[in-house]
Amino acid sequence: MTDVDAFYRKIRLRLVESGEWERMKTTIGPKLNESGWLDDIKNKGVERAGEMHQLSFQTLFEALSTAGHVGLPLPARRELQAMIREYLEKQFE
Length: 93
What we know:
By secondary structure, the chain is mostly helical. Helix content is 86%, strand content 0%. It has a single domain, classed as Orthogonal Bundle (Serum Albumin, Chain A, Domain 1). The chain is built from 5 helices and no strands. The longest helix is centred in the C-terminal third of the chain and has 18 residues, at 74-91.
């Protein structure tokens, strides 16, 4: 694991432990739903799972993770990045 990966894991853990991650999800979730992103990911998951001979959570997660990142609406991505940036600035002042 690289230093960047370790740093990323620590930040993600802090976000979860502080409740900030849940707040971000609550803020962004409705916007993703309105944009159709959630339905798109759900449909892709159902389609991909139906194509698999042996269902594998890890394989399904990896496929949906990639599709989710690529298909994330730009306004939602920017808002989420701004919230994370603001959180990090407060943590490292």
